[in-house]
Design a protein that fits this description.
Elements lengths: L7 H45 L3 H41 L11 H10 L3 H43 L7 H27 L8 H17 L6 H8 L2 H23 L38 E2 L4 E2 L3 E7 L2 H10 L16 H7 L10 H17 L1 E4 L2 E3 L4 E4 L5 E8 L6 E12 L5 E13 L9 E5 L5 E5 L2
Parallel strand pairs: 2-9
Antiparallel strand pairs: 1-3, 3-7, 4-5, 4-8, 6-7, 8-9, 10-11
Length: about 475
């Protein structure tokens, strides 16, 4: 049966659903909060992987997804707490009814103040009801706002990607088309943002609204706002709710920045969680320290701080600038069409179909990969203390699915104790040029496992002098 929104029966149905909606709100909020908490860690892992692999666009989308999830959790938890307070207020009203200020036996000054500021108990319940309903609507409206922001960035990326194809026809045409699109698109996005933050500011002036109307229509499809527009305008006609919806994201970002910057410092010189160096060991460079799913390798890693084997396995995470350095060292490896970036590829399609075991690498491609690794070994080297170690690199993915290179160093003749592993290679400067430098320094301790019975362990004496005691 088709509902007529103008009929009296349909309006009665809506009124009844409106009165009983608090039960559905609590059920949906509970399921949503549980789902958000369960899904937060896997998405956080993907965000960290994108950052480690220098995937700027992927990192942008995933980090914004995490921000949107955090805002949703905050809004829904607040909604559940306030809705619980509302239920408690209704239960208390059933027991004690209205607030009787005269029975409190306060002075006339306080009694008149409380009657004016606090008001009736029914008014308090009504305010709580309005706040809870507005928060619940805002929480799910925020989902559409973040989807809209993703769509805006996604359309820009897609058009920019296809404009790159013009470069094969004419570099001048490509440059002109790219600059024109970038300027026009960012100008339109700026107008839409001003209109959004101003709660329809550009729609009020007669002349400006005529200019803005075509942009509004185009971006209504880009942002998918035609799906949720009635909810937006119904929300914006409430003054307090409107400002809450506009300011919730900026306030969250400001709070996050302030919370991350504020903290207690226990030392004037010692800094916690700094990059690995000759005097500090960060667990992100030692694979046995990466226990949690969100803990990933930072650039270069070795198995442990203490090495007992006569060889040292090393993993180097791949970064796009490494390939640029290889191309600069051997220009014959530079392909005619650079396939780096976002696009459709056959190997990804085959992997998505569950046929990743099929080998589609040609003999010519394998030859290029071998030359690639040979050049990589020429420009990137490992030093232990002051000694240079020749490395033969291979491609791999570590246990956290980070793609990169691996090599093994022979350290059988290395003396026992602390050593510094240095990864040396070309480092990209701000002007785009490469300069050979130490990219990272990782300390480790070498104690061969077969020499434990012949060594002496050191223990401090009561005077602070080191004594030597045979190990058992």
């Amino acid at each position: 049966m088709k509902n007529d929104y103008q009929s009296a029966d349909f309006k009665k149905l809506l009124d009844k659903l409106q009165q009983d909606s608090w039960q559905l709100e609590l059920i949906i909020s509970g399921f949503a909060i549980y789902g958000l908490f369960v899904g937060f860690e896997p998405i956080e892992v993907e965000s960290l992987k994108a950052v480690k692999n220098n995937e700027a666009l992927g990192s942008f989308f995933i980090s914004n997804t995490l921000n949107s999830m955090s805002i949703l959790i905050m809004l829904l938890l607040t909604h559940v707490v306030l809705r619980g307070l509302w239920i408690g207020a209704i239960g208390l009203r059933y027991v004690s009814g209205e607030i009787e200020y005269k029975k409190l036996n306060y002075s006339e000054k306080f009694t008149s103040f409380l009657e004016k500021k606090v008001g009736s108990f029914d008014q308090y319940i009504s305010r709580l009801e309005n706040i809870c309903s507005s928060l619940f609507a805002l929480a799910f409206l925020m989902i559409f706002f973040f989807i809209s922001s993703f769509m805006v960035v996604g359309v820009f990326t897609l058009v920019t990607h296809y404009l790159e194809g013009l470069e094969s026809i004419s570099k001048g045409v490509h440059t002109l088309a790219s600059w024109t699109f970038n300027i026009v698109y960012f100008f339109c996005v700026l107008l839409v943002l001003i209109d959004f933050l101003g709660a329809g500011l550009l729609k009020r002036n007669k002349l400006i609204s005529k200019i803005y109307f075509p942009i509004y229509r185009v971006f209504s499809y880009i942002t998918l706002s035609f799906l949720y527009r009635p909810l937006v305008y119904n929300f914006l006609d409430q003054k307090k709710a409107r400002w809450l919806g506009i300011l919730i994201v900026p306030l969250y970002l400001l709070f996050s920045i302030f919370a991350s910057a504020y903290g207690r410092s226990n030392s004037n010189y010692l800094v916690v969680d700094q990059n690995t160096s000759g005097i500090y060991t960060n667990k992100e460079n030692y694979e046995d320290q990466l226990i949690e799913e969100t803990e990933l390798v930072r650039f270069v890693s070795i198995p442990s701080k203490v090495i007992e084997k006569p060889y040292l396995p090393i993993f180097i995470g791949f970064n796009a600038w490494m390939e640029d350095a290889v191309f600069e060292n051997d220009s014959t490896l530079l392909p005619k069409n650079d396939e780096r970036g976002y696009g459709f590829r056959l190997d990804r399609l085959i992997a998505a179909m569950g046929r990743s075991s099929i080998n589609i690498t040609s003999a010519e491609s394998l030859g290029f990969q071998k030359r690639y690794l040979e050049n990589f070994g020429k420009i990137f080297q490992f030093h232990i203390d002051s000694m240079v170690y020749k490395s033969e690199f291979g491609m791999t993915a570590n246990k956290k699915d980070r793609f990169g290179f691996e090599t093994y160093l022979d350290i059988e003749n290395l003396p026992k104790g602390k050593h510094l592993l240095r990864f040396i290679g070309p480092d990209r400067q701000p002007n785009g040029e490469f300069v050979t430098d130490t990219l990272i320094t990782i300390p480790f301790w070498y104690f061969p496992e077969n020499s434990s019975g012949n060594t002496k362990s050191e223990i401090p004496s009561s005077e602070g002098v080191v004594e030597q005691k045979p190990s058992l």
